[in-house]
Amino acid sequence: MEISERKKQILKAVVENYVATAEPVGSKAIAAEIGVSSATVRNELADLVELGYLEQPHTSAGRVPSPKGYRLYVNELMERQRLSIAETEKINDALRLKMEELDRLLSQAGQAVSRYVNYPAYVAAAGKRGLAVQRFELLRMEPQSLIAVLMLSDQRVRSQLLHLQLPVEAEQLPPVTKLLNESFTGISAREMNLRLMALSDAVPPALFLLLNQIVSYGADQLEELGQKTFVTAGARELLKLPEFRDADKAHQLMSFLSDSTEKLPVPDDGSPMKILIGPENVSDALHDTSVVVASYDIGDDMRGLIGVVGPTRMDYAAVAARLSGFAEGLTRMFGKNGLPPKEEQ
Amino acid sequence: MEISERKKQILKAVVENYVATAEPVGSKAIAAEIGVSSATVRNELADLVELGYLEQPHTSAGRVPSPKGYRLYVNELMERQRLSIAETEKINDALRLKMEELDRLLSQAGQAVSRYVNYPAYVAAAGKRGLAVQRFELLRMEPQSLIAVLMLSDQRVRSQLLHLQLPVEAEQLPPVTKLLNESFTGISAREMNLRLMALSDAVPPALFLLLNQIVSYGADQLEELGQKTFVTAGARELLKLPEFRDADKAHQLMSFLSDSTEKLPVPDDGSPMKILIGPENVSDALHDTSVVVASYDIGDDMRGLIGVVGPTRMDYAAVAARLSGFAEGLTRMFGKNGLPPKEEQ
DNA sequence: TTTAGCACTCCATTTCTTCGAGTGCTAAAT
DNA sequence: ATTTAGCACTCGAAGAAATGGAGTGCTAAA
């Protein structure tokens, strides 16, 4: 059977009604929207059920979109909603936060998204691969303490006060710095540790102790920054939704959201936005849940993800529009001055 | 009427039963615990209701402790639970996390607590007051960029790459550093900005631009670190509790937990642990909720708070024991090497 | 003072009714 | 060939009534 234009129109009406009300929608309501009688609509509805685009909770109830129906809606019927200028402005305002720690930035972005779309949100940023220390600097504070400053290959700077086992003199530092810069820059954390080991017999014990402290600090930092950051926000929004009034369901999904650092983020194959409806999700914790995810550019050519989790009955048009607004905002933000917009420390 | 020893014993039984089951407890169950008949117990129960220590949801139901009853229980009847060595060890393990960002440390501590007691937890650390920059260092990277390193009065180090409006030569930096160290150390962020303004006419514009960038960065950092950090974790635990199966209630409390950065943390007047039962809480969002809060020492003589929020029907003995375990752990942690245990950057 | 016994209360749960929105089908109308 | 009006029918949601049992308060005996 061919799916006529009118069927599509009806399907659209069903989706939009159901999204708005969370109740099965009957023929009468639709008849009012398009100018035909309810009987005609009923015939069409019956066809749509037959074709698998709609479902009927039980015989004498209205219709509810099936995942397939949502899919068609998202692919063809949904009007790509344009954000009003006011709204775009609001989103940008929300993002115009002081760039500090990446974590905090992401967490704030997540909160903002969640607040705007009224669903739980998550944000992920891939850790930099191939990150290395670009330059070491040492600042002597007291005989037994110095500040190690690392400049990383992505222009970020990290520093820390180190308490030393043995005192050092000011004139000892330049050669140490030189050694660090010659032997420990531009390489991975792993490699740094290896080279350090290799030096253990080649240099005096006192020097080794010092090197060890500094290099370990550097390697730790690289490892930390190389990890994926993942943040969720607004899980409580779930409780507002009728489909999660059941505390057990809500609890289950919330636990999933806060635990799964990995399984959740839906991968994204190049396109800027992806919508996964109900069973299309791999993870079965998300089985009757939809995910809308957009990606944004971080410096270099890395991408981060920003997503929203909600019931299958989600206002896809609104969420998609806002989410891409946020993704664009983030991209712009990260891209501001070429590389990371402003380093945090 | 005097409150006999037996009455106390019965009250204790009621509290403990109710905490365990969340159901009003009847005379029979208690009669089994202490060696008297249920009729006797009923007489005593009636007295306890009269005295306001118990409540009766309706005539033919069992008894439930009133806030006053819990209070007596907490003050006198509760056995101060000793943690097993294994348990103490577990708690310490949970805390033996790499000290990095303070935020992250707190958030991890919160998660750990929440996981251990199965209630939502929150952790707060007061920002340092009187924080100032102790020393400035500048490292020239390229003509148009340098790294500013700040050593703060609490021994923490912060640093950031700054992109300059105008190029600087290496030999220009020492005098700038000197100026910074002479005029902008040991003072508040506010004062820093004032002094900066005062200099605006006294120094050449190019120098002022540079100073401005560095000093502003320093002032921002001071402000940020001077703020109270506040973290909540495990809000979803609420959903497991029968008293919050109602999605609206749960949502309300969760929102309160995640929003209120200020109102929630219960102040603490010197004693290491405080228990607030139901209506004893000032904030009415916590009206039928109890809070157990312990304090821990951060460096200097600052204190942080770590607390647990749960239903009035909370296992006070267990929570109090574990919470103080955590508080001790944190205190030990922060106290490790005299001051902040390990600075993060 | 304690306890056994008993009538009574009141809620939680179940079962039964009722109500109405919505359907599917048929037959007339376009 | 569609579309529409009409009508009997279905089935869940919401309310009402019935049931059961845990727990009480009171009385009278131990």
Question: Which key features would you list for this structure?
Answer:
homodimer, 345 residues, alpha+beta, Arc Repressor Mutant, subunit A, Beta-Lactamase, Enolase-like, domain 1, 3 domains, 5-stranded antiparallel beta sheet, 3-stranded antiparallel beta sheet, 44% helix, disordered C terminus, DNA-binding
Helix content of chain A: 40-55%
Number of structurally distinct domains of chain A: 3
Order of strands across the biggest sheet of chain A? 7-3-10-9-8
The helix/strand class of chain A is: alpha+beta
Would you count the extended β strands of chain A for me?
10
Share in β-strands of chain A? 15-25%
Largest protein interface? Answer: A-B, 39 and 39 residues
CATH class call of the largest domain in chain A = Alpha Beta
Profile the largest sheet of chain A: 5 strands, antiparallel
Number of helices of chain A: 11
Mean pLDDT of chain A: 90
Oligomer: homodimer
Overall outline of chain A: elongated
- The parts of chain A where pLDDT drops under 50 for at least 5 residues are 337-345
Distance separating the two termini of chain A? 62 Å
And the CATH topology of the largest domain in chain A?
Beta-Lactamase
